[in-house]
Amino acid sequence: MGKNIIQKILDAHIVEGNLVPGSEVGIRIDQTITQDATGTMAYLQFEAMGTLRVKTDLSVSYVDHNTVQIGFENADDHKYLETVAAKYGIRYSRAGNGICHQVHLERFGKPGTTLLGSDSHTPTGGGICQMAIGAGGLDVAVAMGGGPFHLTYPKMAKINLTGKLKKWVSAKDVVLKVLSILTTKGNVGWMIEYGGEGVAKLSVPERATITNMGAETGVTTSVFHSDEITKQFLAAQDRESDWSEIKADEDAAYDEVIDVDLSDLKPLAATPHSPGNVVSVEDLEKQKLVVDQIAVGSCTNSSYLDLMRFAEILKGKNTQTSTGLAPGSSQVLRMIADNGALVDLISSGVRIMESACGFCIGNSFSPCTKGVSLRTSNRNFEGRSGTHDAQVYLVSVETAAASALNGFITDPLSLESMGIEYPQIRMPAKFAIDDSLILNPVPAEKANEVKIFRGPNIGNPPTNTKMPDEINGEVTIKVGELITTDHIMPAGARLKYRSNIEKYASFVFEPVDPKFPEKAKANRANNVHNVIVAGESYGQGSSREHAAMCPMFLGVKAVIAKSIERIHAANLVNFGILPLTFENKADYDAVAQGAKIRIHDARKIIAEGKELYAEVDGKRVKLRYSLSQRQKDILFEGGLLPYTVNK
Ligand code: MIC
Ligand code: SF4
């Protein structure tokens, strides 16, 4: 039997475990990326492991999230990251160079390699046929030190793209269609491979838009094959030598095949507050919903093609609502500046923002109260924009442009009746290459001369004690369904405390129950274990390990949910918090916030692999755990850092 692309890359990288879906395997990691918001902690943990130099083929540290620099904190973090990178053999992409995923695709992504990134949208690299996976910073730190990355050997789905996209319909609509099929939950443990004749017509950045937002379905990663289009993209980046052809064998098998006919697709949008709430823009247009702001950019839609399409549609006309654009990288910004599109955008009244995450993470360009915001980004979780009651819709660049011209949500298909032609943008034969904002590390023999800068915002990574014999405490908080990491550990204005765990922990669950940190601390002081109870798909979204690290700091010992998303479940283990699920989902209803909870002999039972029960206010509730021996050992040690150091 032939192999598919996922199998080919995995097989070439597996160093531990068996190729059985559902069992844990360890893979060798060729490249790593970090971004500043998760990177400071990742490097502090890397330092704590005592490794002298990174052992990957390539590790890059990007600064793209916290670039606002109100106060000293962000700048201090940047300086720490720059000096750490120089010392340990890591390339450093300075603030202004662009969003990690966009820049990595342009300058470093290599077909057939593995990439681990401390950001959930690392799968963007799948557009160039990398097996690119998002993880917590501590997992990335271990990979930088040469350790394998552990994941569940996946089930594999093929999304078979047939037909051809109509004018005004784009890659964003393809992935929104996929989200409408797969939804944002229930896909843990799967990987997606795109195939079919429709793939040949998609450029690398368009493929990357699709793999980027695969993160929202909860799959581990998505990949496209590496073909002539990939080769041309790499050649245009002066990196043709990085190319190799990678495709599925004719008789490759998949656990599931989903057909999507590109010719049938229409412009789509995700309505508030989930990327999975997908409707047609045509239907939204009927509501004549007035738009308060439009934001174009983010790692999903800020490539050269995206920006040029937006600029061409707007050319010579005025925007009717507040419109901002953040180019994905200094490369694309330079290109639209050189060819005049930037002037066109400015003339249309578009506010040009920094090449960074910016609006996407809610640390700038927040909408007005109850504001309707149309964004080309990938997440519209409640409050993520920085405005608690804003209504964020996720759309394509084409829909954003059409709506910017009318001031209400507009189907781009109606633009032709307004006399606007579909912009035919060609991929450039050569991109404007300038890596001057990417600093090289010092040679290994000079590493000890580099002094690491540590401002007052940089703390030490918090430590945990070994797992107790039993859990005995309180259901300190009970939350509902689809709780995201933005609910658990808000970003936006709070982002600047990422390196200061004591301070950042005072915002755990801020949007849900601002009193939680106080209650948890009081319990911690009295040796009462804190337990979180949650509904379906707990921990969706970001890879931020702070959503586990800060609860750990507050004395949380277990999470019991109907289901837990992949990266978050791994982060819980990494910080010594037990990830448990209800055997019977209906038991969720029987557990009240404030209930006393006891899990007798938890440690012994888990070690022996026996049935686990909690006693909640006297009632017995059966729990499930799905942990490899390695994960059990990590939990018993109190987390991955002590486990790794002891090893
Ligand atoms: C996000 O899009 O939510 C982020 C901010 O990029 C996060 C990382 C973080 O929280 O720092 C992610 O996607 O992992
Ligand atoms: Fe940055 Fe937004 Fe992409 Fe996260 S999703 S990496 S915040 S642009």
Number of domains: 3
Class of secondary structure makeup: alpha/beta
Our Rg estimate from Cα atoms comes to 24 Å
Tell me the CATH superfamily of the largest domain.
Answer: Aconitase, domain 3
| Uncertain stretches of 5 or more adjacent residues | none
If classified by CATH, what would the architecture of the largest domain be?
2-Layer Sandwich
The CATH first-level class of the largest domain comes to Alpha Beta
Question: Could you tell me how far the N terminus lies from the C terminus, measured between alpha carbons in angstroms?
Answer: 39 Å
Mean pLDDT: 97
Number of helices: 22
Strand percentage: 15-25%
Count of extended strands: 27
Overall body shape? globular
What is the topology, as strand order, of the major beta sheet? 21-22-23-24-27-26-25
Question: Helices, strands, pairings?
Answer:
Layout: H1 5-13, E1 14-16, E2 24-27, E3 31-35, H2 36-49, E4 58-62, H3 73-88, E5 91-93, H4 100-107, E6 114-117, E7 131-134, H5 137-144, E8 149-152, E9 155-162, H6 171-182, E10 190-195, H7 204-212, E11 221-223, H8 228-236, E12 256-261, E13 268-270, E14 278-280, H9 281-286, E15 293-296, H10 304-314, E16 322-325, H11 330-338, H12 341-347, E17 350-352, E18 372-375, E19 391-394, H13 397-406, E20 438-439, E21 471-478, H14 485-488, H15 501-504, H16 516-525, E22 529-534, H17 546-553, E23 556-561, H18 566-574, E24 578-582, H19 587-590, E25 596-599, H20 602-608, E26 612-616, E27 619-624, H21 629-637, H22 640-646
Parallel strand pairs: 3-4, 3-6, 4-5, 6-7, 9-10, 9-12, 10-11, 15-16, 15-18, 16-17, 18-19, 21-22, 22-23, 23-24
Antiparallel strand pairs: 1-2, 2-8, 5-20, 13-14, 21-25, 24-27, 25-26, 26-27
Helix pairs in contact: 2-3, 2-5, 6-7, 10-12, 10-13, 17-18
The structure holds alpha-methylisocitric acid and iron/sulfur cluster (SF4).
